[in-house]
Amino acid sequence: MKISFKYISYFFLLILGFNMALTSCTGDLDVTPRDKNEFLSEDFFKDPTSYKEVLAKLYAGLYVGGNDGDGAPDIAGLGGDFSSYLRLLFVTQEFSTDEAIIAWADGSLPTLNTQNWSPANEFLAGTYSRAFYEISVANEFLRQTTDEKLTQRGVDANLKAEIAAFRAEARFLRAFSYANLMDLFGNVPITTEADPVGFFYPVQRTRAEVFAFVESELKDLDNSLVAPRQNEYGRVDKVAAKFLLAQIYLNSKVYTGIERNNEVATLCTEIINSGYKFANNIPYSYLFSADNDRNGAQNEFIFPIISDGNAIRATGGGMSFILHASIGGSMDAASRGMDGGWQGIRTRKEFVALFPDATATGDKRGTFYTDGQSLDINNVGTFTDGYAVTKYINVNSDGTKAQRPDIPDTDFPMYRVADAYLMYAEAVVRGASTGNIATAVGYVNQIRTRAGATQISSADLTLDFLLAERGRELFWECHRRTDLIRFGKFTGGSKIWQWKGGTMNGTATESYRDLMPIPARNIQANPTLKQNPGY
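^ that's the sequence the OP posted. Answer follows.
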């Protein structure tokens, strides 16, 4: 198995000594290394390999919550397992919707099941601070890799060219975090490498201003990120920037009040023709197996968050959380490639209803475990209330074992071609003149053919259908909350699911909850921040 960057990423966590206070996002990189000879020093950068290692820290930060796996967490106030970036995205994007619910009663976690969160929610504070931590590391990397500094260190032209590509990737990962902050919290500060290091109060920007910053960065990165499919697996290229740009344009009406559907269709066409391929020659299940980095699924993955059982220290973050927590009841953990289950995550019956033909010969994406599980969720804290989900598995697609049963090898598909198909179709239905219905129907039918679902006609291609189809194809991939908001069905009473609003049968919730609150502890640390309306 040749995954050199993956090993650099996670073993590098043993080298860096970062620890960020949960409130320190009020100062850019308000982080003190434990060893003065580490990240902030000139000595660290005497080693030519150090530049790639710092970039690896940024990528690893998407999965693990701290140095040495869960040990030495990056974010004070939450353990390394709870503060994993991917885990926090899953918590905020999935538990607040019809796609998932968790049995655990840790702190204020249950309020995310019911859309009853408050500014004191520590998981929202963790999400806010995790994103700003990534931004801070990216900013410092950019400060340390200016042409002036590289020349002072005697870096040769070949390494300078390589570092230029690293800088582009760091800027993309920074834009990724700003896009998440904009989506979840709305008005947030913007800090860049041009800002001072240390304590200061960065200015809170409007959501539209954050949008404009992310848009500008992603457009500019088309000039500096590497060409499509020319990077190591797990690292981003030009197509990832186009994908994120298409995403924010698709949600532009929510973020800025202006629709950008023409741009969405144009970008998705470029993505689809970029060299990444919709994997129509493998079963849908292969996309979520332990060898999805090499079984054909990798051709569809534009931006995977990579996992590796032999490279990651013990962690309850990332895919380890998603897989462990979705096993319980009578499920056989060993058959899922895992060493046990944490009796946590299931789905709600309203989501199950999206799969009317999920039979042995029907839609193969309806991967529910029902033995001993009730469809209704009478008690949120009981794992056997609600169908379990078996979408992800830590077993290779040929049935052989993964490397370890405690840390999965299964990579998380943050961006993939099937989503570009669906974004194109939605943009066309919303009126994009840069696409056409026939092409959109063809893309959707490719997705449904792989799934074993029935074909559709142009008359079937409605917004309601597309919201449901996005759920069927992309569930548990950290899209649902954003999708429901864009379709006007996250809060309010137009779409109800069990335990929405805190009652078993569900009830309407307040529209202001389309935005999460700015965490109280972050406002306490930066009193210039203004709370979102309603909180």
